[in-house]
Amino acid sequence: MKKIVVLMLAFLSYVGVQAQTGKNFPALTGTNLLDKTVTIPKDTKGKYTVVGVAYSQKADEALKSWFQPVYETFIYESEYDVNTYFIGMISGIKEVAAGTIEKKMKKGVDPVLHKHMLLYKGDSKDYKDALGLKEKDTPYFFVLDKEGKIVYTTSGAYSDAKLEKAEEILDEASE
Asked: TM spans, by residue (predicted)?
């Protein structure tokens, strides 16, 4: 019985994440670690975009598991011509500490990733609802088409299978 409950919860969480596929990514403006403002999808139109989102410290830790594989696949000497962003959402009481969080990120994140790291400061409720960000301690990943529509969604720590699925979608798009 316990296995059935666990399987059902896993399936429902998968369905909730997949339900966002086909919708437009909501306009989100953040500042990267080079102090440049970026609005997704407005500033990313014309290219496919890979986006990772975290809105808690635990989710941020799991998001870090994606940094190296995403960098190697989509940024460093990549065959893919895509935008790539990792977004840390800072809202509520944490907004007071945003400056400290940003300083720690600048010191703790490899400088080659600074232009790909966005900080969003503000109310996150609308984004949580629009993107189906149900699990606070889980990072979420999206592949957006050239117009900003979500074509792939996944969540959780990095796995080869998740990254391969994103690559498959990008390969199909370039055919």
From this structure: none
